[in-house]
């Protein structure tokens, strides 16, 4: 979630003055959420593939060392950041919000 929130704030909004507080309860002015949903799903897959726990060892974490390496948090955050910044400009272009 933090990768998505930081992307929206620092890349697309750039300052606190870019937020219109009157829009919070108006569905017509809020973002559709396609980019956020896609990033959330991609981040969850990144976490699952990168985690190394007693109950689950992901495919990517198995490639790190003899016992695997727990990089689920890093993979999830980076994948969410990348997917959000690919899909969000498309959402702005086609939906305008």
Automatic annotation (TrEMBL):
InterPro entries associated with the record: Pur-cyt_permease, Pur-cyt_permease_Fcy2/21/22
Membrane topology per record: Multi-pass membrane protein
Main location: membrane
Any one of the GO BP annotations: cytosine transport
Subcellular location, record wording: Membrane
Alphabetically ordered keywords of this record: Membrane, Transmembrane, Transmembrane helix, Transport
GO function terms (MF aspect): nucleobase transmembrane transporter activity
Pfam families: Transp_cyt_pur
Cellular component, GO annotation: fungal-type vacuole membrane; plasma membrane
Transmembrane segments annotated in the record for this chain: 30-52
Superkingdom of this protein's organism: Eukaryota
PANTHER family according to UniProt: PURINE-CYTOSINE PERMEASE FCY2-RELATED
Family recorded in the similarity comment: Belongs to the purine-cytosine permease (2.A.39) family.
UniProt name for this protein: K7_Fcy22bp
Species for this entry: Saccharomyces cerevisiae (strain Kyokai no. 7 / NBRC 101557) (Baker's yeast)
């Amino acid at each position: 979630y933090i990768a998505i929130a930081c992307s929206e704030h620092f890349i697309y909004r750039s300052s606190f003055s870019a937020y219109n507080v009157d829009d919070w309860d108006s569905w017509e002015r809020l973002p559709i959420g396609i980019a956020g949903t896609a990033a959330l799903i991609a981040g969850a897959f990144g976490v699952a593939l990168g985690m190394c726990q007693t109950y689950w060892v992901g495919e990517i974490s198995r490639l790190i060392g003899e016992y695997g390496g727990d990089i689920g948090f890093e993979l999830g955050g980076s994948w969410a950041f990348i997917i959000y910044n690919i899909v969000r400009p498309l959402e702005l272009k086609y939906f305008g919000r």
